[in-house]
Amino acid sequence: xxxxxxxxxxxxxxxxxxxxxxxxxxxxxxxxxxxxxxxxxxxxxxxxxxxxxxxxxxxxxxxxxxxxxxxxxxxxxxxxxxxxxxxxxxxxxxxxxxxxxxxxxxxxxxxxxxxx
Length: 116
Known about the structure:
Layout: H1 2-22, H2 24-27, E1 30-31, E2 34-36, E3 41-43, E4 47-48, H3 49-107
Antiparallel strand pairs: 1-4, 2-3
């Protein structure tokens, strides 16, 4: 599976490079982003489109990484809780087994010893 993942990542990198090479003229154009709120107006300096593309990709990657970290931590917490439940149940099962052995030993007739 590790090799398939590396192959797919390499293939995506090659596709990205080909995309940039074929569209270099369009990606070098500059645009200016604006946010016009009623209380404030924000404008960026002219930015080339390739910079915005890379920043968007990086932001998406960071957000996905944060989501995976939170999911991983949540799964570790669930696993820890389930292990504690298994330990508790194993202790209960062991105590129940010992109680059954004691009950069966008490209920079993005692062999009589011959009188001399």
